[in-house]
Amino acid sequence: NKNSKTQTAISFSWDVSDYGVNTPLQYTLEIDAENGDFTDPETEVTENTTLSLTHAKLNAIALSMDLNPNI
Asked: What CA–CA distances, in Å, run from 34 to 11, 39, 40?
């Protein structure tokens, strides 16, 4: 379905980090293959406490990692 490319495939959320001082926050989601060791992960960076990936983005990540997309 062509419309599914723009639909959310997966969403992540987490609590705001609190370091006891007012500091800019940036969160990094690291993505690796099932048996990967995260030595060279794909990363998504946000300043928000949620991150959603569309089917198109998730498939692009899979392709960039030489994985099978659309599964």
From this structure: 18, 13, 13
Q: Are strands 50-54 and 27-31 parallel, antiparallel or unpaired?
A: unpaired
Per-residue model confidence (pLDDT) at position 36:
94
- In eight-state DSSP terms, residue 21 is S
Residues 6 or more apart whose CB falls under 8 angstroms from that of 30 comprise 38, 41, 42, 43
pTM (predicted TM-score): 0.80
Segment 52-65 mean pLDDT = 94
CB-CB contact of 43 with 31 (8 Å): yes
How high is the pLDDT of residue 1? 57
Return the beta strands (E) in 1-71 as ranges.
8-13, 27-31, 42-46, 50-54
Could you say which DSSP state residue 47 is in? S
